[in-house]
């Protein structure tokens, strides 16, 4: 297993292995930390604390979870502590009655017909997006800023899930494990997060004020 | 029943008796492979007849692809060097006892 080799190299004091780990996970860790703490500067500190935590725990790490899961979990613990200290309390209760748990429709209800036999079917259907939409968005400074803004505007739980699932490409099982949430909760948060980001992108791409 | 009523009912049946609104709410379950077989069939029937929902599904897939291609912020060289220093210190401490 790759994990086992990597772990052995790290424990043997292989500097290249550590550098590779840092290069691979620093950016993703920073992105996830941003879902917990209020500023980029604090997020950077949390990530550095995480790496020190990794070094502290390396000799005791038993490999019961993957190396990746273990590192993300260290980050989340540090980030939660910092998030509370920075007094921006992030709602962690998975079923709490926080604002983000209210049922929010995926699409603006005004886009659907409100009367007649075809009520709740499209009144104003979505626009056509080209196949190279991702490339076009990511290559323009403004497009990139729009996506980052849409992610940053999400409630914390949604932001945590979409960051790990869609940005970092982790599996549903890995994300449930890292965030300690149920598969159903994970799917609900993912649905709301994706719907909101799509809506933000549609507003940007299709222009105009009436877009969902 | 008028001719139009009958026509509507047939189309509705062929579109899986799902509203477009329901499709937009079931889309993540669909993409996650979590729809029941019955609902999956109805979802597919709806997509077959509804260009609006096909466009919506496409937008959703493109949104996911965009998110997956977001660049990661590179680590500042000074931070990287500092961490490698820490690793060296850790190594000497780890092997001194």
Structure description:
The complex is a heterodimer of chains A (212) and B (97). Chain A has 212 residues and is mostly helical. Chain A is 61% helix and 0% strand. Chain A contains nine helices and no strands. Chain A has helices at residues 2-11, 15-33, 40-57, 67-85, 133-139, 141-152, 156-167, 172-179, 183-206. With 97 residues, chain B is mainly alpha-helical. The longest helix of chain B has 20 residues, at 77-96. Helices cover 77% and strands 0% of the residues of chain B. Chains A and B meet through helix 2, helix 3, helix 5, helix 6 and helix 7 of A and helix 1, helix 2, helix 4 and helix 5 of B.
By DSSP, the count of extended strands of chain A is 0
Overall pLDDT metric of chain A? 89
**Percent helix among the residues of chain B?**
over 70%
Beta-strand content bin of chain A:
under 5%
Uncertain stretches of chain A: 88-98
Q: What is the string of SSEs of chain A from the N terminus onward?
A: HHHHHHHHH
Shape of chain A: elongated
Rg calc of chain B:
26 Å
Task: List the chains of the largest interface with their residue counts.
Answer: A-B, 58 and 49 residues
Uncertain regions of chain B: pLDDT < 50 for 5+ in a row?
none
């Amino acid at each position: 297993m790759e994990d086992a080799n990597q772990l052995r190299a790290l424990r043997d004091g292989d500097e290249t292995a550590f550098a590779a780990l840092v290069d691979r996970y620093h950016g993703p860790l920073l992105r996830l930390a941003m879902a917990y703490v209020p500023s980029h500067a604090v997020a950077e500190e949390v990530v550095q604390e995480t790496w020190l935590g990794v070094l502290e725990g390396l000799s005791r790490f038993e490999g019961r979870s993957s190396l990746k899961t273990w590192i993300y979990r260290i980050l989340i613990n540090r980030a939660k502590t910092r998030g509370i200290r920075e007094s921006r309390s992030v709602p962690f209760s998975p079923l709490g009655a926080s604002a983000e748990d209210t049922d929010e429709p995926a699409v603006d209800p005004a886009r659907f017909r409100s009367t007649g036999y075809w009520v709740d079917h499209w009144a104003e259907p979505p626009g056509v997006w080209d196949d190279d939409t991702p490339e076009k968005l990511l290559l323009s400074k403004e497009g990139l800023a729009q996506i980052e803004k849409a992610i940053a505007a999400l409630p914390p739980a949604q932001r945590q899930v979409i960051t790990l699932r869609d940005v970092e490409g982790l599996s549903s099982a890995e994300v449930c494990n890292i965030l300690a949430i149920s598969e159903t909760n994970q799917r609900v948060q993912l649905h709301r997060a994706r719907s909101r980001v799509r809506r933000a992108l549609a507003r940007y791409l299709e222009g105009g004020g009436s877009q969902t | 029943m008028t001719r139009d009523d009958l026509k509507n009912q047939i189309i509705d049946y062929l579109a899986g008796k799902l509203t477009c609104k329901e499709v937009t709410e079931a889309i993540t379950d669909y993409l996650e492979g979590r729809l029941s077989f019955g609902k999956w069939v109805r979802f597919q029937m709806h997509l077959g007849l509804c260009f609006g929902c096909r466009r919506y599904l496409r937008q959703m897939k493109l949104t996911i692809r965009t998110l997956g291609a977001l660049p990661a912020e590179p680590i500042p060289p000074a931070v990287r060097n500092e961490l490698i220093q820490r690793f060296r210190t850790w190594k000497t401490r780890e092997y001194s006892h």
